[in-house]
Specification:
The chain is mainly α. The protein has 2 domains: about 1-175, no CATH class; about 185-220, no CATH class. The chain is about 65% helix and about 0% strand. The chain contains 10 helices and no strands. Helix 4 runs parallel beside helix 6 (about 130-140), helix 5 (about 90-115) runs antiparallel to helix 6 and helix 6 (about 130-140) runs parallel beside helix 9. The protein is globular, with a radius of gyration of 18 Å. The relative contact order is 0.10.
């Protein structure tokens, strides 16, 4: 899709051409995802789940790359007074692009998750919980951008669509914990895995818990 070409491209030309239209393209793509997931034919909906999951995988991989590059970027630790006057326009452009990418992630993920809420369980390896986890990991990789909006727990208005997407993902995981074969819910496992990513010295019990799930942190 044109939008995913934009997301995966580092070309200034691609950004210049597509950025003004990214809102419309994102909403169109979100509608396409909804139509795919609402297909009345079981064979078609299985293919649709894989198509949507592959698209969310691509977005997650881009988010992971952005996070990795950001950590090594001097701008990551810079505060406004430290930015040279001739670099402020570039800095503003970078943040605009990052926030636009977050907007795309949220628009697509919210559309997918909101549709899944009304769908019965499907005979497919890709489940609602799978797509919810993909969304959560993508948002985790973009936490440094999300912080610019006050995070997902702030009581101020902030980015309401972002909060809805985050908590909808957790709700879907909480309601599908029976699929998890035993130890704990997918939502709890997600938190444990994120803790391990932040603090590799977490307790041995946390490591055992994470190894017990099919959703290994190192896969994300």
């Amino acid at each position: 899709m044109v939008m995913l070409v934009f997301l995966s491209s580092s070309s200034n030309f691609a950004i210049h051409v597509f950025l003004p239209s990214i809102s419309s393209i994102s909403k169109l793509t979100a509608n396409v995802f909804c139509i795919l997931l609402e297909s009345p034919r079981s064979a078609a909906i299985t293919n649709s789940f894989y198509t949507v999951s592959d698209s969310l995988d691509l977005i997650r991989d881009i988010a992971k790359t952005i996070e990795r590059d950001w950590v090594s970027c001097p701008l990551a630790n810079a505060v406004e007074p430290e930015i040279a006057p001739d670099s402020k326009e570039l800095s503003k452009s970078i943040w605009t692009t990052l926030k636009t990418f977050l907007f795309v992630c949220v628009v697509l993920s919210e559309a997918v998750l909101s549709t899944l809420v009304y769908l019965p369980p499907q005979p497919c390896d890709i489940t609602a919980a799978t797509l919810a986890l993909q969304t959560l990991y993508t948002l985790s990789h973009l936490s440094f951008v999300i912080s610019q909006f006050g995070g997902v727990t702030t009581s101020t208005q902030g980015f309401e669509q972002l909060k809805k997407t985050f908590y909808l993902s957790l709700d879907i995981l909480a309601q599908t914990e029976g699929e998890f074969e035993g130890v704990c819910s997918k939502a709890e496992a997600y938190v444990q895995q994120i803790c391990l990513l932040v603090d590799p010295q977490s307790s041995e019990s946390s490591e055992i818990l994470c190894r017990s799930t099919a959703y290994r942190a190192d896969e994300f």
